[in-house]
Amino acid sequence: MASLVPLERRRATLEGLRAALSAEHRAASPEAFTLAEEGVVRSGLGTLDAALGGGFPRGVVATLEGPPGSGRSAVAARLLASATAGGGLGALIESPAGAEGSFFPPALAAAGVDLGRLLVVHAPDAAGVARAADILMRSAAFGVVVIPAVVLRAVVWTRLAGLTHRANAVLVAVGAVASDELRYFASLRVRLQPSHVRFAGESGPFCTLAGVGVEAAILKHKRAAPGRRAQFSCATFECAGAPLGALRERTLEPAHADRLRARSGI
């Protein structure tokens, strides 16, 4: 019996080593990068939320980058819809004089945004956007705040990132490109690229745009696994549930996609 003791000890040691290696493997697996439900804001786009580890993490600055028509505004609208659901609040800071223009309120409502719980602030310039975002984040009353991806100094992004973390909110910067300072301070960067478009109705100049296919690439993610990709479709919100008839799909030519990537500057 005495000779069996060392053998049993070796077996126990081996089992402990196996358990440790198994735990380490699970920690490095994709499931380990799934964020807790209360720690994210879901976009409602299943493939995108899955690529993000559950959704957009709270307490961070995030970017939605891509050319016009890439679906960045549609994703931002869905985040605002999530923020205003169940009695929450969302905020939208716009700079009408800037390149991003303004969101269309009926389209926001069609996307599910409760306009009665959405604060819209018009800022004249980049400094106005920064001041408005500072005030909203200090209030800690808004779950999601969407702003144009304006160029701000590093010290400003440092302050906004700190306020966003304390407010446990999501500050979403939407634009074609992100400045060097924004790229550094953003904890999450998502690049969006249109892959195909869908038309309804007869061919010709009077057909209706029914939606766009989007490819999303997670360029940066400090709280989950980066480098993931997702594909999803965005329907036009302006249809308001009206029947679209027969749909036709057109894939964007590679040369056109390359031009859009060049315009995005990424």
Question: What descriptive keywords fit this protein?
Answer:
11 strands, nine-stranded mixed sheet, two-stranded antiparallel ribbon, Rossmann fold, alpha/beta, 266 residues
The separation of the N and C termini measures 70 Å
Uncertain stretches of 5 or more adjacent residues: 25-32, 238-247, 260-266
What is the CATH architecture descriptor of the domain at 34-194 and 214-237? 3-Layer(aba) Sandwich
- Count of helical stretches: 8
Largest sheet: 9 strands, mixed
Number of strands: 11
Characterization of the model:
The protein has 266 residues and is α/β, with parallel strands linked by helices. It has a domain at 34-194 and 214-237: Rossmann fold, CATH 3.40.50.300. It has helices at residues 4-28, 46-51, 72-84, 105-110, 126-139, 154-167, 180-185, 254-264; strands at residues 40-41, 56-57, 60-65, 90-94, 118-122, 144-148, 170-175, 188-200, 208-221, 229-235, 247-251. A hairpin with a 7-residue loop joins strand 9 (208-221) and strand 10 (229-235). Helix 5 (126-139) runs parallel beside helix 6 (154-167). The relative contact order is 0.17. Residues 25-32, 238-247 and 260-266 have low confidence and may be disordered.
Question: How would you summarize what this structure contains?
Answer:
The chain has 266 residues and is α/β, with parallel strands linked by helices.
